[in-house]
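Response to reviewer comment R2.3. The reviewers asked that we include at least one raw input/output pair. We reproduce the pair for O-methyltransferase here without editing.
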Amino acid sequence: MAQVLLDLIELMSEAAQRIDTTCKQKNVAFPTLDGPLDNASEAIRRDAEVAASIDILAAAAQQIIATARAPTRTIFDSVYAFHTSSALRTAAAVNVAEVLRKSGPKGAHVDDIVEGTVVAPSKLARVLRLLASQHIFTEVAPDVFANNRVSSVLDTGKDVAELRAYPEKRYDNTNGLPALIEHGLDTFYKAGPYMTETLTDPATAASDSPNEAPFSVALRTEDDFWTWLDRPENAPKLHRFGVAMQGAKSLVPEGYIAQGFDWNELPKDATVVDVGGGTGHVSMVLAKEFPHLKLVVQDRPMTIQHGIQYWQENMPEALASGRAELQGHDFFQPQPPRNPPPALYMLRFIVHDWADSYAARIMRVLRDAASPTTRLMIIERLVPYACDVDEGALGIPGAESTLVVPEPLLPNLGIVSLNCYFGDFQMLNAVNGQERTLLQFKNLFEMGGWKLDRVYRMPGFTAQLIGSPA
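Raw output as returned:
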């Protein structure tokens, strides 16, 4: 009998039927892999029921493969998965997606793709065939490749001649995703292989110092990632990183910040301090949605200069009226005094950059500046366990996950939650930081002098964690 396979196939079939029903109701076709990425047709994936069904379908499909195939195949596919990253990096460097954009569905022969480069066409064919076998590009004829919906994500949207003539402008005026992809395939990709050495070396195994992370070991530098990135010789990588972060922000809808926590609970003229808030694009959402609030955006002085320009271009009246203030500040240093103290401090995707000892220092600085009624909001991903766990037992309102996972799927939906774990490894390898489970956040709040009072779970694995002074 192969009942587990039949059960998984049934889950997939039911999920596909739900997706089909929604598509018919909305009179839209579900996007296929054929052809380039079309953002308008991607809207159906953002439908809540469709998104939930996609998760079930993907989790079941992955589990079918792991169940049906020999264990050795699964292990060795994982062992050699790094070749896919290498192939992607090569495809990006050769501007394959941009070349194929112009050739359309008929594709282009590798001889034409490499024209003007030193790359051997026969070697590029092998690179692209590996990717096409994983549905990244399409091989339409022997050694002839075309873009598909997945490979189009690599496309900067620029002309190949422009990219070759002005490589320093490669990421300017793009959606940021190519920069995010190529940042991951360059700087952090090189750090990954050194994780084992860093974790098993007695000199670094127990360290939580940012400059003893695998990144620093791999690049043979005494700098942490942030210091290294600021070096003059790394200016192109710093620029790419800045654009990459804009791309990362585009993957999280800005409106999420207005959900969950009831911002209308805060009194008129209450001050919200967005600590490490970048240029303040999220605070701008709050300024528009909740005009009774005062917003203070804090970040490094260089970032704040860009932020002032951003606000002057998009919401100058908030700066002129004093409703919005942009302030250069190091979040490890004491907060500038305010009278009255802020109603809320917000740390949005900040503490994942730091190990507990450093993250608690940041939070302790905010606790020292807080009034008894000041609240702390941390917005981060909550890492799920790969086993069943009752997080409601923590006694924190909103802690219990609302995710209902049918058997025999993994409780974390397997492949669906991989992005959380990849992000966690990214933080570990780059800066000795980490994504955290809910229990780890509860402990971190206590280390920083706060009490975790409430959890607002957002779509995906993101959450607003609300604390009060302990």
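The two ends are 57 Å apart (CA to CA). The mean pLDDT is 94. Further pairs are available on request from the corresponding author.
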